[in-house]
Specification:
The complex is a heterodimer of chains A (about 500) and B (about 325). Chain A has 18 helices and 15 strands. In chain A, strands 7, 8, 9, 11 and 13 form a five-stranded antiparallel β-sheet that branches. Chain A has a four-stranded antiparallel β-sheet with strand order 12-10-14-15, with no helix packed on it. Chain A has three domains: about 170 residues, no CATH class; about 100 residues, no CATH class; about 110 residues, Immunoglobulins (Immunoglobulin-like, Sandwich). With about 500 residues, chain A is α+β, with helices and mostly antiparallel strands. In chain A, a hairpin with a 5-residue loop joins strand 8 and strand 9. Helices cover about 40% and strands about 5% of the residues of chain B. Chain B is built from ten helices and three strands; from the N terminus they run βββαααααααααα. Chain B has a two-stranded antiparallel sheet with strand order 1-2. In chain B, a hairpin with a 2-residue loop joins strand 1 and strand 2. In chain B, helix 3 crosses helix 10, helix 6 packs across helix 7 and helix 6 packs across helix 9. The chains are: A alpha+beta (about 500), B mainly alpha (about 325). Chains A and B meet through helix 1, strand 1 and strand 8 of A and strand 3 and helix 1 of B. Strand 1 of chain A pairs parallel with strand 3 of chain B.
C-alpha cells in the first residue's frame, strides 16, 4: 500500500504548526464542602503537621548522642528515629522501608486506586494549600477567573504580589523545615538567622523554596500529568476490582437540566449537566469522560455531585467510588458487591502479606541486632614477621564497633593459637597477654593494631579474636582469621 | 532539503481517536496508533531556558575549542585552577601540623597522640614515594620477596642495627648509613677475612657463629678466632653493638641470610649496606614523619638516651 505521492512533508502541510504546543488551561477549582473535602483537610493538616513539627521533637539519648527525635546526621553518618539508631552498614533497614513503601503503594492502589495521589502526596498537599491561598486572596472560582482575564492594573499587580509573597513565604518554610531534619533544629535555626549555618543549608533551603514555589504555586496538576511516573505506572496496578472515582453514566446519561427533565422525565438521566464536578476538580478534568490520567481520585467531584443530587432530590452517588466490576453489575441492575469483599481479594491479601512479612522481618532484625561488633583484618604486606627471638608475629587491624550511646570498655581475647600472646600500639610487648582492654567512645568505631606473636616453630593455623563488652550486657562477637608463618604464605 | 524524504512504508493517514477526540499521528503499528497530543507550552519555555542557560554558560565558562586553546570564559574558571586552589587550601590546613611537628623534639612526639597520628599518616605517604624502592611497600625489606637481593633491612621487626627509638631512626634517616660526604653519617665497616684464615679456621668460625643460635655444634677453634677478631664489634656473646651498627649474631634475623654458605660468604667478603642521607632531599618535618611511621610499624623502641657520639671511628683493620 505504498503511496509514493504522499510523504511526511505533505503531512506537515496538513497539520498546522500551532498544534505542536498547547497553552496550559488554568484550573480554578471551586470551594466545596463534603465528606471527602473534610477528609482531605484532615490529611493535609496531619501530614503538614508531621512535616513541620517532627524535627522539633526531642528524645533523650543520654549525654553522648543528639536529643533530636528524628535526625539524619550525615556528617557523622548516623540516622536517628526515636529509639532507633541506624549506622551506615545497617542501611538495609532503610532499603527495607523503601520496599515497604513501594509495596504499600501497590496495595493501596489495587484496593482504593490512586488514594496516595488524591490525599497524601506532597504535590497534592501543597497544591491544596496553595489553592487555598488563591481562594483566600482572590476569592472563589468566578472571582479568580475574572481577575485572570482582567488587564494588568495597580490592583491586579498588588493582589498578585501579595499572593506570590504568601507563596514564597510558605515555600521558604517548606525548604526551611527540610534542613531541620539534618541538624539539631534549634541550633540550626539560630545559626541560619545569624548567618553561621553551613552553606549547604542555605543552598538547600533556596532550592526547595524555588521548587515549592514553582511546583506548588504554578505547575500544580502539570506535575501529575506530565512529570510524575506514578499515574503511568498505576494503569498496571489497577484492575476491574479497584475502587475508582466513577461517573455512573448508565444512570446519568443522557444529561438534561432539571427543567427539561421535568417536562420529559423518562428521556433524561440523573445528571443535570450542572458542571459542578468539573468546577471543583483540582486538576480541571471532567470525570464524566471516564477514568483518565489527570484524575487523582480525590473525591471532590463526589462531594459536589452529592450536594447537587440532594438539592434536586435524586439519590446520591451519581459520581462515586466504584469498581469497574460493580459498574457492570449495577448497570445490569444487580446489587454491587460489599466493599469489604472488594478489598479482601487475593491480590490485596498477597500485597498485605508481603508488606507485613517485610515489616516483621525488619522488626525482628532490629530487635535482635547486636550493639557490639568486631572485624579483624590481617596485614598482608608483610603477612608475617620473624622476630629476633625466632618467634613469628602477625599484625591485625581490629575494628571494634560500639553501637551504644555511651563509652564502653571491651575485652579482646585470642580464641585458639594456644601459646600466642597479643600486644598493641598502646600495650608494649613486654606486657603482652592473651587479652587486651580497649575503651571505645560512645557510638564510635575504634580501630587498633594488634600484634600476635607465637613462639618459634608454631604452625600456621586458624584462630579467632573475640570481643566482649565489659558491662552487664556482656555482648560478644568474634572474627575468624588465620595465623601465617614463614614458608606457608609463599 | 533538496531530496524528498523517503516515503514511509505505509501512507500516514491521520484519524481522530474516538475515545479522546485527539488526532493521531497517522501511523499504525500492528493496530497501535499514537495520539498527536500537543506538548504543554511551558515545556517549550523550559527548552528556551536551557538554551539561554547554555548561552550564559558559554560566556562565563570555558567552552569553545579553538586552534591553540579553548575560550576561557569571563569568570576565568578552570578545573586546573580549582585543583590548585584546593591544594593550597589543603596546604594551609597542613601548615599548622607542620609547624607543630617542626617545633616538637621527636622524642616527645608520642606524648601528643593526635600529632603522632598525623605524623605517621604523613610518613606513610612519604615512605611510599622515597623508601619503597629498597625497603618494599610493606617495609619488610628483603623479606618482602625472595626475588629481592638480601641486605635491605626489615623495618617491621624488633631487630635494629643502629637503634630503633624515634631519635635513632630520625638520625639514621637524616644522615644515612655509610653516606659519602656526610661527616655525621652512621659508619662502620666489617673487614673482609678472605685469605686471612685457612679453610678449617673459617669452618670453625662459622660453626661458632651458628652455634650462637643453636644451629651448629660449638667449635673451640672458632670460639678463639671469634674472641680475637669479632668480639670487638659483635660482642663476646654475639649480641652486636648498635653504636657501630654491628648486627646481633645470636638472634633469628640475618640481614644477608642465615645459612651456612651465607654466613661464610659474609665473613670472607662482607657486604656493607648503604642508605642515603635524606637531609637536604627531604625537609626535617618529612624526615620526622618518616621516623614516626617506621617507628609505628611494630618494632619501634621506647626512647632511651643513646651515646652522644654516634659516629664511630672507622675500623682500620685490613
Amino acid at each position: 500500500m505504498n503511496n509514493p505521492d504522499r510523504s511526511w512533508a505533505d503531512l506537515a502541510k496538513d497539520s498546522p504548526p500551532e498544534n505542536l504546543f498547547e497553552k496550559r488551561k488554568q484550573v480554578h477549582p471551586q470551594r466545596i464542602d463534603g465528606n471527602f473535602r473534610r477528609f482531605k483537610w484532615l490529611v493535609m493538616l496531619v501530614t503538614l503537621a508531621i512535616y513541620y513539627i517532627t524535627p522539633w521533637l526531642r528524645w533523650d539519648r543520654g549525654p553522648y548522642a543528639p536529643d533530636q527525635a528524628v535526625l539524619v546526621d550525615l556528617a557523622n553518618r548516623r540516622f536517628y528515629m526515636f529509639g532507633i539508631e541506624i549506622w551506615p552498614h545497617e542501611f538495609y533497614f532503610v532499603a527495607g522501608l523503601l520496599i515497604m513503601a513501594g509495596i504499600g503503594l501497590f496495595l493501596v492502589t489495587s484496593a482504593v486506586g490512586r488514594a496516595w495521589c488524591g490525599y497524601a502526596c506532597p504535590q497534592t498537599v501543597w497544591t491544596n494549600l496553595f489553592q487555598h491561598v488563591d481562594r483566600f486572596v482572590d476569592g472563589d472560582r468566578n472571582a479568580r477567573m475574572r481577575l485572570d482575564k482582567a488587564p494588568w492594573g495597580a490592583g491586579k499587580v498588588a493582589r498578585r504580589s501579595f499572593k506570590w509573597a504568601i507563596y514564597l513565604f510558605i515555600s521558604f518554610w517548606t525548604g526551611g523545615a527540610w534542613v531541620m531534619y539534618f541538624a539539631d533544629a534549634p541550633t540550626l535555626t539560630v545559626d541560619f538567622w545569624t548567618g553561621n549555618a553551613a552553606l549547604v543549608a542555605y543552598i538547600t533551603v533556596a532550592i526547595l523554596t524555588l521548587t515549592t514555589f514553582i511546583l506548588g504555586g504554578f505547575m500544580r496538576e502539570q506535575v501529575c500529568i506530565y512529570m510524575c511516573p506514578w499515574p503511568r505506572i498505576q494503569s498496571a496496578m489497577l484492575d476491574e476490582k479497584s475502587l475508582l472515582v466513577t461517573y455512573k453514566d448508565w444512570r446519568g446519561e443522557p444529561r438534561g437540566s432539571v427543567k427539561k427533565a421535568a417536562k420529559a422525565s423518562d428521556e433524561f438521566g440523573d445528571c443535570i449537566d450542572c458542571n459542578q464536578c468539573v468546577a471543583v476538580c483540582p486538576t480541571g478534568i471532567d470525570i464524566r469522560e471516564g477514568p483518565q490520567i489527570g484524575c487523582i481520585t480525590c473525591g471532590l467531584c463526589i462531594d459536589a455531585c452529592d450536594r447537587v443530587m440532594n438539592e434536586v432530590g435524586r439519590p446520591r452517588g451519581l459520581i462515586d467510588y466504584a469498581t469497574l466490576e460493580d459498574c457492570e453489575r449495577e448497570a445490569a441492575g444487580e446489587e454491587p458487591r460489599p466493599v469489604w469483599k472488594t478489598m479482601l481479594r487475593p491480590r490485596t491479601l498477597i500485597y498485605s502479606a508481603i508488606w507485613g512479612g517485610i515489616g516483621l522481618a525488619l522488626l525482628f532484625a532490629l530487635g535482635t541486632r547486636a550493639h557490639t561488633e568486631l572485624s579483624a583484618a590481617a596485614d598482608r604486606n608483610p603477612p608475617f614477621m620473624l622476630m629476633s627471638d625466632g618467634s613469628v608475629r602477625n599484625a591485625f587491624t581490629l575494628k571494634i564497633r560500639n553501637m551504644e550511646s555511651r563509652p564502653r570498655s571491651f575485652t579482646i581475647a585470642i580464641d585458639g593459637l594456644d601459646q600466642a600472646v597479643m600486644w598493641s600500639g598502646t600495650v608494649p610487648r613486654d606486657e603482652a597477654a592473651r587479652m587486651l582492654e580497649v575503651a571505645v567512645a560512645a557510638d564510635q568505631t575504634q580501630a587498633i593494631r594488634a600484634y600476635i606473636a607465637a613462639p618459634a616453630g608454631s604452625a600456621a593455623q586458624d584462630f579467632a579474636f573475640t570481643v566482649t563488652s565489659a558491662d552487664e550486657q556482656a555482648e560478644t562477637d568474634r572474627s575468624e582469621v588465620r595465623f601465617v608463618v614463614p614458608g606457608e604464605a609463599e | 532539503m533538496a531530496n524528498k524524504p523517503s516515503a514511509p512504508s505505509q501512507a500516514p493517514v491521520q484519524k481522530i481517536d474516538e475515545a479522546t477526540g485527539t488526532k493521531t499521528v497517522g501511523h499504525e503499528w500492528d493496530g497501535i496508533e499514537e495520539l498527536d497530543t500537543p506538548m504543554p507550552r511551558w515545556w517549550l519555555w523550559t527548552f528556551y531556558l536551557c538554551i539561554l542557560f547554555s548561552a550564559v554558560y558559554v560566556v562565563l565558562y570555558p567552552a569553545w575549542p579553538l586552534v591553540e586553546k579553548g575560550t576561557e570564559g569571563v569568570l576565568g574558571w578552570s578545573s586546573r585552577g580549582q585543583l590548585a586552589e584546593e591544594i593550597s587550601v589543603a596546604d594551609q590546613a597542613r601548615t599548622t601540623v607542620n609547624e607543630q611537628l617542626a617545633r616538637i623534639p621527636i622524642e616527645r612526639l608520642p606524648e601528643d597522640g593526635t600529632l603522632m597520628q598525623q605524623a605517621v599518616a604523613g610518613g606513610r605517604a612519604a615512605f611510599l614515594v622515597n623508601c619503597v624502592q629498597c625497603h618494599g611497600s610493606g617495609a619488610a625489606g628483603s623479606m618482602a620477596s625472595s626475588s629481592l637481593a638480601k641486605g635491605y633491612p626489615n623495618l617491621n621487626d624488633d631487630d635494629w642495627l643502629w637503634g630503633g627509638d624515634l631519635k635513632a631512626i630520625e638520625y639514621t634517616l637524616t644522615h644515612g648509613i655509610r653516606q659519602q660526604g656526610d661527616d655525621m653519617t652512621r659508619f662502620s665497616q666489617m673487614p673482609p677475612f678472605n685469605g686471612v684464615f685457612d679453610d678449617a679456621q673459617i669452618e670453625g668460625l662459622v660453626d661458632h657463629v651458628l652455634a650462637l643460635t643453636g644451629q651448629a655444634k660449638p667449635s673451640a677453634v672458632g670460639a678463639q678466632l671469634y674472641t680475637d677478631n669479632c668480639a670487638q664489634c659483635h660482642g663476646e656473646a654475639g649480641l652486636g653493638n648498635r653504636v657501630q651498627g654491628a648486627p646481633n649474631l645470636a638472634d633469628a634475623i640475618w640481614l644477608y641470610g642465615g645459612t651456612r654458605a651465607e654466613v661464610k660468604r659474609q665473613i670472607l667478603a662482607p657486604r656493607n649496606g648503604m642508605m642515603p642521607k635524606w637531609n637536604g632531599r627531604l625537609d626535617p618535618v618529612t624526615i620526622k614523619m618518616l621516623a614516626a611511621y617506621v617507628h609505628s610499624l611494630g618494632g619501634g623502641e621506647d626512647f632511651v638516651e643513646v651515646a652522644k657520639n654516634v659516629a664511630v671511628e672507622v675500623d682500620e683493620q685490613p
